[in-house]
Fold GspL cytoplasmic actin-ATPase-like domain-containing protein.
Amino acid sequence: MYAWAGSRPQRCVKIGVDAVAWAETQRNWRGRRRHRCAMSPLPDGVVRPSPAELNLSDLGTLEGRLRALAGPAPAWRLGGRELLKDIPRPIVLLLPDAAVRAVVLHLEQLPRRREEREALIRWRLGQEQLFPLAGARVVSQVYGGAQAGDGQGHTVLAVAVQESVLQQYETLCEAVGLIPQEVGLTSLQLFELWRRASGLRQWQRRDLLWASLADRSLTTMVFQQGRLLFYRCKLLGSEAAEITADSRLLTKIVEECGASLDACQQRHPHALVKEAVVCAGGDLSALQAQIEAELELSVEPLGWRAVETLGWVTRGSQPGMASLSAVAGLC
């Protein structure tokens, strides 16, 4: 439909519970890519993630915040003359984890053709009867093991989002001249950011717990040498707007991480997880210490400081979990 349909967007919009964030790719004088990002806080209750109900309650406020972050649309000029203005810009759009339903499927066979694979996954979801699929769009991501053809089949993370929920987010973006060319899930993009930072292949040799805290929810995933075994998203409440030294919040997070490990262990007793990656905003030292002490896991933190150390963001970019997610959307 657009001339850029074959290229990946160079801009990302992250719509979250506490803030909306914008990230775009820039090149410095050496031609090296960096990401500039900014975010704008939102009033409480403007975004309420739900897989079954509409998420956005104040479109006027959201549109104003997003328009200010994205800036004016570019114009096409030729010979100093303006030929076209207000050109729609393609973006990656990131949704809160709690806006969708997701489940891990284990499949013995996986068709190569995309249409057949999507039909099989949708059929399996219907067989599981975990949630209604009427009016839902189903997308999936395949996770393989460390060795191809190891006889353990395929693991697939299937994500179902209601068309009415997705349309709200897309309509908001289109109102300010932004066209969602790709739509992603916050936790999965943050995981991709960590995966690229730690080495595309090295993580497949590890058994680990992934825990990300964004949009007042905790998403946990358990991997065994690159194979996804478990996925869970748990709402934490308004007190989880930012990680602090609040002992009650930290205890709740650690308990939920432990519950995810226990549930995974019951289904996959061969999984022996000794490492964890924790992604969140703010100071993670207290949470890291508590997880290491109570769950006996070696913890690797991932936060804003990590992308600064890697040199992936430009000076002046606004730190925060929403901004980190927007940067992750460009990975």
Summary: DSSP finds eight helices and 15 strands in the chain. The two ends are 24 Å apart (CA to CA).
